[in-house]
């Protein structure tokens, strides 16, 4: 365990855990890239929504029960094994591996509940609901057609509604750990986007080598990912930690559930969509990006990311947010550019994000960087 000023810090085992979780996100990116349509996006939203709830559950778990003993470490590795099974089953979760996906998720749930009982008996009210979600997914793997999606949707509704059944105020959380853990997770997710860039360039250049055009296209793609990174890590993490530290336990837990569970859903799904779109762009560099879904994945991914970021700022009581709200329709307006050259849309999205950050920085005086009003 790492401690600073009485606050728990993220351990290396937690980072190891996050790497396995991000592998599941990588699989979701592959699923969306293969099925780049509204159906594919719906599948990714269902699977990720259920997964994200349990990732948040483990972040809260290690916030109050650090994995420092051999038993805790072994159990946490058992949870990682469950996430690994989920990741392996993800590409065919809706076409044949739903049962394995649900079994992996059930392992994740049971390990989480068993560990949390050592720190907070309030988890007894949460674990049965999580287990029911896993059983619904197992059942979904045994049926076909619309029933499959109905059961998955029911499994997703459980974590969405759970905070209204079990008040977050039951949990005492360390602000610094929560901020650091989720920040590192978002950072690792950006790393997955960089991997997607590499895969796209390698696939396009297979047997022919990587030319100058592909190299430039890869750098432009990295510029977009870097602009996304900047919007999150331009001081919001420090300001969020300060805002969480100033409040008492019950409101802090509520802010965390709103800011780091609900608001981070569109943030990470947005990154997944952008990564899938970049794969399509780099598969045929300096060519029109055929098909609306690919262009929409890029623009819509950035829009979702910005929406989540705005909601996050609102939950934390930090700002400003109006410039990022205005950037959402601008991002969607880049879709026609993809019909000319895919890289033109990538460059336009990067320019919109960079311009938004510059205007925002000039509009907010340096002295107000720790302001607590989100719409100042």
Model description:
With 376 residues, the protein is mostly helical. It folds into 2 domains: 165 residues, no CATH class; 194 residues. The chain has 14 helices and 2 strands; from the N terminus they run E-E-H-H-H-H-H-H-H-H-H-H-H-H-H-H. The N terminus and C terminus are likely disordered.
What percent of residues adopt helix (DSSP H or I)? over 70%
Total count of strands: 2
Tell me the number of helical segments per DSSP (H or I, 4 or more residues long).
14
- Identify low-pLDDT runs: 1-5, 366-376
| Distance between the amino and carboxyl termini | 38 Å
Indicate the proportion of strand residues.
under 5%
Average predicted confidence as pLDDT: 86
Q: What gross morphology would you assign?
A: globular
Q: Rounded to an integer, what's the Rg over CA atoms?
A: 21 Å
Count of distinct structural domains: 2
Strand order of the largest sheet: 1-2
Output the structural class.
mainly alpha
How many strands, what sense, and barrel or not for the largest sheet? Answer: 2 strands, antiparallel
Order of helices and strands: EEHHHHHHHHHHHHHH
């Amino acid at each position: 365990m790492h401690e600073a000023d009485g606050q728990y810090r993220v351990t290396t085992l937690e980072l190891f855990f996050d790497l396995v979780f991000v592998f599941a996100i990588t699989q979701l990116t592959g699923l969306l890239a293969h099925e780049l349509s509204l159906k594919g996006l719906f599948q990714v939203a269902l699977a990720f929504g259920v997964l994200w709830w349990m990732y948040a559950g483990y972040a809260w778990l290690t916030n109050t029960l650090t994995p420092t003993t051999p038993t805790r470490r072994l159990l946490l590795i058992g949870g990682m094994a469950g996430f690994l099974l989920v990741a392996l089953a993800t590409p065919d979760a809706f076409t044949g591996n739903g049962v394995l996906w649900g079994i992996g998720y059930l392992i994740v749930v049971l390990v989480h509940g068993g560990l949390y009982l050592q720190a907070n008996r309030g988890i007894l009210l949460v674990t049965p609901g999580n287990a029911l979600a896993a059983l619904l997914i197992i059942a979904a793997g045994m049926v076909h057609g619309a029933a499959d999606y109905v059961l998955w949707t029911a499994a997703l509704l459980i974590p969405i509604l759970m905070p209204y059944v079990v008040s977050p105020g039951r949990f005492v959380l360390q602000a610094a750990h929560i901020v650091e853990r989720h920040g590192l997770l978002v950072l690792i997710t950006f790393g997955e986007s960089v991997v997607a860039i590499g895969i796209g360039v390698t696939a396009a250049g297979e047997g022919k080598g990587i030319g100058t055009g592909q190299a430039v296209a890869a750098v432009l793609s990295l510029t977009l990912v870097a602009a996304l990174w900047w919007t999150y890590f331009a001081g919001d993490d420090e300001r969020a930690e300060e805002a969480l530290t100033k409040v008492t336990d019950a409101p802090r837990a509520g802010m965390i559930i709103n800011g780091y569970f609900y608001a981070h859903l569109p943030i990470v799904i947005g990154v997944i969509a952008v990564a899938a779109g970049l794969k399509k762009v780099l598969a045929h560099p300096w060519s029109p990006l055929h098909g609306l879904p690919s262009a929409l994945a890029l623009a819509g991914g950035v829009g979702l990311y910005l929406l989540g970021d705005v909601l996050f700022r609102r939950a934390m009581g930090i700002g400003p947010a109006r410039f990022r709200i205005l950037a959402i329709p601008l991002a969607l307006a880049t879709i026609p550019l993809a019909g000319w050259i895919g890289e033109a849309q990538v460059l336009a999205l990067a320019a919109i994000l960079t311009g938004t950050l510059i205007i925002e920085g000039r509009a907010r005086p340096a002295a107000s960087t720790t302001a607590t009003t989100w719409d100042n």
